[in-house]
Amino acid sequence: MQKITLYTTIVSSTLLWRSINFIMAKLKKKWRLFPARHQLANELSQKLNISEYIAQALINRGITNEQAADEFLYAGAEHFADPYALKGMSAAVKRIIQAVEVQEKITIYGDYDVDGITACATLYKTLTRLNANVEFYIPDRQSEGYGLNPAALHNLIDTGTKLVITVDCGISAIKEIAPIGDQLDIIITDHHQPPSELPVALAIINPKQPGCLYPEKNLAGVGVAFKLCQGLWQHYYGLETKFFDYLDIVAIGTVADIVPLTGENRVLVKLGLKQLQTTENLGIKALLEVCGLRGKVIDSGSIGFVIAPRLNAVGRISQATAGVELLITNDANYAHELANLLDGENLVRQNIEKSILAKAEEQLETVDVGAAKVLVLAGEEWHSGVIGIVASRLVDKYYKPVIMISIHEGVGKGSCRSIPAFDIYTALTACSDLLTQFGGHRQAAGLSISLPNIPLLRERLNSLAAETLSAADYVPVLTIDSILPLEEISAPFLEQLACLEPYGFGNPSPVFACHNIEMKEKRLIGQQSRHLKLKLKNAAVKDVVAWNMAELSPLLTCDKAIDLVFVPKYNEWQGQKNLQLIAHDVRQSPDSQTQAELNRIAPDRTCIAQVYLTLKEYNKLGQYNFSLQTIVNKISSNYNVVLSENVLTMALTILAELDLLTKEPQEPQEQGTFTIQLTPSPLKKLDLTNSPAFQESIKMREEYLSQYS
Ligand SMILES: [Mn+2]
């Protein structure tokens, strides 16, 4: 018995050690600060009456002039482009009107993902309001797959459909459409990349097709469907009538499809989110209630993490039709029934996901994960609708490219998710001789493979990654907009910050950093104590929450200083608004030894203040001429700090850039001596970050630290 216990102790401590090693590796993130553009930020800040830090965030997003910034901050419906600028719009509208007039049966042909479901619902609701005779069709994910298929089209012909309008699919359906001939009119609306040869259809609406001058190329499928609705509405009710009734649905599809939230997409989502908050849509209302979002602030995160997975779940597990039904129903009871169904399906999906994730982690136990460059995992009958999500989770956890392969009847179907440095599509192309089929893009792809080739693929991808990636490519990068003094965070600041929303793909939330903030309390919170809560010894902000970062806790010591990467947010609880920082990363500020090292590289605030005060003391005594060594000696005796002449020179440059002193070589020229005179103390509060040399200094210190962490 004794022996066995000992044995298990050894095994578990080895495992524990491995996992600790792993967590340490995972925690290490590189902090990368955007270059500060003080002059421009200052200019924008004054012209738009916004904080300089907000202006800098705009600049970081490529918005560098007043007009662009104004449009970005206050974008509204006036930025919607004319739907008739889409090639094919007039022809499509004309044919649909004709169908409405003679009550021909129209079928909307959609897709089982959230984009397809919402596109279908938006067009269905619009056509119903225009008194069309309309139905919809969503192919089954498992038995039919994505896009148009001949059997489904023939079935539609047999049941009396005269006009098919596709949403979120159809642009590649040359073969499927060709044999239909004139038995059916087809209007294609899609947003996927068109192939070189387009299908023969009555009209094609796709902003990416050749010859389409529409300015917004990145619309989701639901965005394209919405433009068609807008076009129809304008035809019936004139140019002046705005048609924005279903933007709540449009926002859900646009966020879920992960198209860039810039330009028209951003406006659609911005207005749509507002509409969601007070939605009249019975299905959405019921769904919000089921997932506990009723009455809460709904942002793009609520769509991405709560609403979309539930709509997606029905398409993944059973029938996506229920998703469309939910969005179009006018019956409150039915809406609740469907919302519960979706929620239940999502629970099923979560459980399948958990069990596959557990099996994947089990396989990883037998692999040297630290040494692997690409993780290739395979299992019998892993649910094909869920392996992509599991692959994403593993990428989040291990920060390595992951391929999850589900084996069914001797054939492997895989979902690939990658890290930014590794182009998985190009890598698969290089392995195409091992694959039966593959497709996708840089960060996500799919493949089919025969079983014997799986180990070969693993080997080939690992050596490819070993050749092309460096160790640094496996360190996640945290991009920081600017160093933000906590005193800057105020109600108006947060209001201005909110104008940059909605965040998401293509428009990430601004992220800030601060250094040397004393932390006086830490504790674990939440279920299974997964989250970390910190209390700061700071007048402006006291609370920091670090979601899912409990493992950082042992690395932090109370009553010492920390460095933080964060997003400021109001936390609303029981009617109380409380400012908190949502941490993206936390680390202990460098200890005194590292601090001393840092002071040999570049000056920080304290060091600059010491230089300033020392010079002030001399000037008071009427002394203006110095060698650098004199100042170094004086600072050393005053503060017990040894500065290098280099660092002192940088500090003097920073003070000069802030107009706090003038520094001239002494006349007659004597080697290494200067006349240094302080200017009268400035009245307004001093901002060190206005000095480019100070920015440079921060960067040098950051780089030094990143080598050490
Ligand atoms: Mn889509």
The fraction of residues in strands falls at 15-25%
C-alpha Rg, in Å? 30 Å
Question: How would you sum up the global shape?
Answer: elongated
CATH architecture of the domain at 79-346: Alpha-Beta Complex
- Unreliable sequence segments: 1-26
Per CATH, the class of the domain at 79-346 reads Alpha Beta
* Percent in helix: 40-55%
Mean pLDDT: 89
Class derived from helix and strand content:
alpha/beta
- Major sheet: arrangement of strands: 3-2-4-5-6
Bound molecule types? manganese (II) ion
Q: What is the CATH topology of the domain at 79-346?
A: inorganic pyrophosphatase (n-terminal core)
| Helix count, DSSP H or I runs of 4 or more residues | 24
How many E-type strands? 21
CA-CA gap between termini: 43 Å
The largest sheet, given as strand count, sense and whether it forms a barrel, is: 5 strands, parallel
Organism: Sporomusa silvacetica DSM 10669
Domain RecJ OB: 480-585
Keywords: Exonuclease, Hydrolase, Nuclease
Family: Belongs to the RecJ family.
Strand and helix layout:
Layout: H1 2-27, E1 30-33, H2 38-48, H3 52-60, H4 66-74, H5 89-101, E2 105-109, H6 114-129, E3 133-137, H7 150-158, E4 161-166, H8 174-177, E5 185-189, E6 203-205, H9 221-237, H10 247-256, H11 263-277, H12 282-290, H13 300-317, H14 321-328, H15 332-365, E7 375-380, H16 387-398, E8 402-408, E9 411-417, H17 424-430, E10 435-440, E11 444-450, H18 453-468, E12 477-480, E13 482-483, H19 491-498, E14 512-525, E15 531-536, E16 543-546, E17 560-573, E18 576-588, H20 592-599, H21 605-620, E19 625-627, H22 628-639, H23 645-657, E20 661-665, E21 673-678, H24 692-708
Parallel strand pairs: 1-12, 2-3, 2-4, 4-5, 5-6, 7-8, 13-14, 16-18
Antiparallel strand pairs: 8-9, 9-11, 10-11, 14-15, 14-17, 15-16, 17-18, 19-21, 20-21
The site of manganese (II) ion has 6 residues, from loops.
